[in-house]
Write a structure and sequence with these properties.
13 helices, 293 residues, mainly alpha
Length: 293
């Protein structure tokens, strides 16, 4: 069978397809099925309720707050990630001493376990032991009476979770953009230099248009991570204070797993799937049209 070319493709792609079906497809369709039933953690039976969970949760203040926070968290973090990743990728393209060390430090947040890294940030933002507050006080910028409560005030808590999420996703976006920059032929840069193009003209009219497709792919990855991930918020704030950092992923966990209402939790979890699917299709279509043939 291995010697037959028509079997080689299916044999090589088969494990990947099986992996996706078992670890992504089955849980997704199970969550979709649960969202249409009244199943709870303690029940041995379930009944079909149709779209009742979806219509019930849409009108609740907690869901609307979580939906708003989800967009603030995702859009805010992605804007910062793309800007910083572009700057880092452009810097990493140049040759300088210690470049390998800088690359290692940039990749470190991505290779380290996210839960351990976030626990470290929990200590950094601690109201008593915060190294940020100690540093600001040592510099004379704040006093003991004006120490910011990073995770205790709504706006500071949102800034904190967005900052940690940026710290986590920045390595991935930087590597993707660096690959895009490396794919630009050197002849184009040489021609721009011969024509006397300034740095900003070179960046705006040559570099950014050529890496736009790969930048859209990096943004798509980041948006999907931001909409679906809950580790950072769960470890740092658990949605608090007063639900000001509650997002749909954490709300689904608290409702379905800790609250025991599996049906409503599943409805919250799959609520954004059509929107994310549409965003993915639009991003990929725009990226494809932006490709330089």
């Amino acid at each position: 069978m291995v010697d037959r070319p028509e079997w080689l493709g299916p044999l090589m792609i088969g494990p990947a397809v099986l992996y996706i079906v078992l670890l992504v497809g089955l849980p997704f369709f199970l969550a979709l099925y649960y969202s249409l039933t009244d199943i709870t953690a303690g029940s041995r039976t379930l009944g079909f309720v149709g779209l009742r969970h979806f219509t019930d949760i849409i009108g609740t203040t907690k869901f609307q707050t979580a939906l708003k926070n989800t967009f603030i968290f995702a859009v805010g973090s992605q804007v910062v990630v793309i800007v910083l990743a572009s700057i880092l990728a452009l810097a990493m393209q140049r040759d300088f001493r210690g470049k390998w060390l800088v690359r290692f430090l940039i990749l470190l947040p991505w290779v380290a376990p996210i839960s351990l890294g976030t626990i470290g940030w929990l200590w950094i933002f601690d109201s008593v032991y915060s190294v940020i507050n100690w540093t600001l006080e040592a510099l004379g910028l704040i006093t003991q009476d004006t120490w910011p409560m990073w995770l205790g005030k709504p706006y500071l808590a949102m800034i904190s979770v967005v900052g940690v999420h940026v710290w986590r996703l920045l390595p991935l976006a930087t590597v993707i953009l660096l690959a895009g920059l490396s794919s630009i032929p050197q002849d184009i840069h040489d021609a721009a230099q011969v024509d006397g193009a300034s740095f900003w003209r070179h960046l705006v009219q040559i570099t950014l248009p050529l890496i736009r497709p790969i930048m859209l792919v990096a943004t798509l990855f980041g948006v999907v991570f931001a909409f679906t991930d809950m580790i950072v918020i769960f470890v740092l704030t658990r949605g608090g204070p007063y639900d000001t950092t509650q997002v749909l992923a954490t709300l689904a966990f608290f409702t379905g797993i800790q609250g025991g209402d599996l049906g409503e939790g599943a409805a919250i979890a799959v609520f954004l799937f059509p929107l994310l699917l549409a965003v993915a299709v639009v991003f990929l279509r725009v990226a494809r049209r932006s490709e330089v043939v």
